[in-house]
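Hey, quick one: can you model this chain's 3D structure?
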Amino acid sequence: MSRSYARECAFKLVFEYIFNKEKDDEALSEFLAEDKNKTEVGYISEVYNGVIAHFDEMVADVEKFSKSFKIDRVYKVDLAILLVAIYEMKYIPSIPKKVSMNEALNLSKIYSTEKSYNFINGILANFVGE
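Sure thing. Here's the predicted structure for all 130 residues.
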């Protein structure tokens, strides 16, 4: 399993968490089982559990930099992408911030709207610049 695919798995888990507000161990186990070589199990678990543990703090970070939108107006797909990227930037120093930003933008091209790319880029650029 590639890191990009593992990041996509973490994004999907976080997206589900945003709606349910509870951890889904069954879904986590299913994603972890996809990693036959067990190369990204630690990453997926760390990001998913870390986003849950720091959820309110990171949502506040997004809200701080989304000047024109209240957090409840942010598209949930974009929020999930942002939370994964911000978690990486804050808590996984071995991943360069540019990589986290680029991967978030790639996810937005696949799962979000045309306008979301610029929104996510702006939030993350401001977050890194702080």
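One thing worth noting: The mean pLDDT is 92.
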